[in-house]
Design goal:
This protein has about 90 residues and is mainly alpha-helical. It contains two helices and no strands. It has two domains: about 45 residues, no CATH class; about 35 residues, no CATH class.
């Protein structure tokens, strides 16, 4: 029979910007998260590590398709602009 163990309890804090639809720039989002971290470090008892975390998504700079290729320059031809970096076509 399956046994479920729970552990590593921690608190995640999502800034209000996500509740509002997130219309801030990346720099503004980062600054807001850093401000919240500073507030928690100053005012909250019982905290351990408090840090800003983020996700990273690789996209084509031209068409915003997900980046799927190992190359940093060519994404397999996701759009006309990307195709200009096709190493096979430019020989
Ligand atoms: Zn593209």
């Amino acid at each position: 029979m399956k046994k479920i163990e729970r552990g590593d309890y921690h608190v995640e804090v999502w800034p209000r910007i996500y509740q509002l639809g997130g219309c801030l720039t990346e720099a503004e989002e980062k600054a807001e998260c850093e401000r919240i971290v500073d507030e928690i470090r100053r005012h909250v008892a019982g905290k351990g590590v408090v840090e800003v975390k983020w996700t990273t998504t690789l996209l084509c700079e031209h068409c915003s398709s997900h980046w799927t290729e190992p190359s940093d320059a060519y994404n397999g031809g996701c759009c006309d602009e990307d195709e200009k970096n096709n190493p096979e076509a430019n020989r």
